[in-house]
Structure formats: structure tokens, C-alpha cells
Amino acid sequence: MKTRSIHVLLIEDSKMQRQFVANSLKTSTRATFKVSCAATLHEGIQAMTQSPADVVLLDLMLPDSLEDKTLARFQEKHPAAAVVVLTSTDDDSLGQRLVEAGAQDYLVKSEVNTRTLIRAIIYAFERRRNEAERLRLSRELDASIEKIHTLHGLLPICSYCKNVREDTGYWSKIEAYISSNTGAVFTHGICPQCFEKVKKEIVAANCKAA
Known about the structure:
50% helix, alpha/beta, Rossmann fold, elongated, 7 helices, 2 domains, two-stranded antiparallel ribbon, 15% strand
């Protein structure tokens, strides 16, 4: 069952390789793929800028780029892209260097088949999505910690009505301020000291209601 829609940018100058990738992705039952193609690194960088893809299939040997520079040049323009490298070189040390440099995976052209291609793309897509989610949660946590630090500091509070001045300059009830900055929910009651002060008013109100 297809549950994902993945936009793939294929940067590859070989028409045969482009056709192989397009035909392979059409057979997938795990995801629906949209494939965009570019024949040079320059075209690929421009295509990624105009319509960002979820995963980039990047051939290292392109008409306008040498093998050892291609990944770095692409990442210079699009550092957050999920890149799966395509290479004609069957060299484990090269593959390790590519992954260490930021590639999600690498595929040797002579060994790749439909199954390994689809798997590499989906894994790269999922890893990058998980990384983005972790980054989002980390930023939310940092923001929450900053709010807590603010609450632990000096609060600009009115000595008469006890309202608190927000960063925007507006004044809020202290309950509303704390709730909006911490998520705390208030329940209201009357403490014994205040009850003694307003007891007569409460009794009188109850008598009228009766």
C-alpha cells in the first residue's frame, strides 16, 4: 500500500540511467514517486532551488563537475538536502567518505537494482524527515527552557492589580501569563485567610439565593 509521496531529483547525464530510475520507481508499491531530472550539476542546483525535492539522486561524474568535488559543491548550495550518491566506482572507502561528508547513502551503478534503489530513496527520505522532527522538537525545548528562565527571573508585575507585563508591552492576568508560558492550568478556590475576610459576603449571598 502506497502511503508516501516522495519527490526525487535525479542529477544524471546518462539518458539510460535516467530511464532506468524512472522505470524502477514506477514499480514501487511502497511509495508514489515524482521524478525531476537534470543533466548537469548547475541544472540540478537550480532545479533544487526552484522546486526542492525530498531526495536527490546525485551522479558524481557530471559534465560540469569532477567526482571528488560534486557532492561538496551541491551541499554548498543545499546543505539540508537528503542526497543519495550514484557512482561508477566500487570502492568501500569512497562510500564511507561520502557518508561521512553528509550523503545519506551511496549506490554503485553496476550493482544497483530496482529494489535497492527504492529502498535507498525511502530510507534517505525517512532519515531526513526524522532529523527534521528532532530538530523541531529541540527548538521547541530550547524555547520552553528560555521561557522557564524568564519566569525564574524578575517579572514586571503591577503592585496594585498583580497583572504581568508581556514582552509585547501588553498586560495580562498572572494566571494567563503563566499558563501561556508554561502550559499550567489553574484551579481556583479560597484560602482560609481570604475566606475569613469574605465570609460575611458569602453567607449573605447564600441567604439571598435561598
